[in-house]
Amino acid sequence: MTAEHYDRRATRRGFLIGAAQLAGGVGLVLALPVNDGRATPDTLQAAIRKITSEAPLQKGKVKLELPAMVENGNAVSIEVAVESPMTAADHVKAIHILNEKNPLPNVLSVQLGPRAGKATVATRIRLATTQQIMAVAEMSDGSFWFDTADIFVALAACQEDPG
């Protein structure tokens, strides 16, 4: 055998070994279980516990506004307003927006202080599907207040596979 002939055999062997490794790797990836990557009501509850540290949630003081139905979940307008005098002694420390079916339960967390003037946050969010949205306000006295709203989403966003 000449050196040229030997190099071609080594290259072919290397190619076949690499192809076999690639095929085995693809087979391994296809055999892994598929997670749909969405939050669930249980992950929502876990996110709430992480924010409140088991403190009780009280309904009121928070007003969550968003449309009841949207055609497209890619940019949904949302506004959260919290009743508070926003003084050094009595103010909103944080506003959290949570959901139950997006890839992650925490959509937004905003830190505030008395110099904010008013406790209002307005933004646009992406929604994966029809679901419940929750706004939680953390007050300077350690209390937590909330509001919820249901929204129907006709065309979902936040999906890896559009099918």
Count the DSSP helices.
Answer: 2
The dominant shape is: elongated
Q: Span from first to last CA?
A: 55 Å
Tally of DSSP β-strands: 9
The CATH topology of the largest domain corresponds to Immunoglobulin-like
> How large is the radius of gyration?
25 Å
Query: Spans of 5+ residues with little confidence (pLDDT < 50)?
Result: 28-36
Mean pLDDT: 84
Q: How do the SSEs run, as a string of H and E?
A: HHEEEEEEEEE
Strand content: 35-45%
Q: Which structural class should the secondary elements be placed in?
A: alpha+beta
**Range of helix content:** 25-40%
Fourth-level CATH superfamily of the largest domain: SoxY domain
Main sheet characteristics? 6 strands, mixed
The figure for the number of domains is 2
Q: What is the CATH class of the largest domain?
A: Mainly Beta
In the CATH hierarchy, the architecture of the largest domain is Sandwich
Please characterize this protein's 3D structure.
Strands 1, 3, 5, 6, 8 and 9 form a 6-stranded mixed sheet that branches. The relative contact order is 0.20. With 163 residues, this protein is an alpha+beta fold. 25% of the residues lie in helices and 37% in strands. The protein is built from 2 helices and 9 strands. A hairpin with a 6-residue loop joins strand 5 (92-99) and strand 6 (106-111). It folds into 2 domains: 1-32; 41-155, Sandwich (Immunoglobulin-like). It has helices at 3-31, 41-52; strands at residues 57-59, 62-65, 69-72, 76-82, 92-99, 106-111, 119-125, 131-139, 144-155.
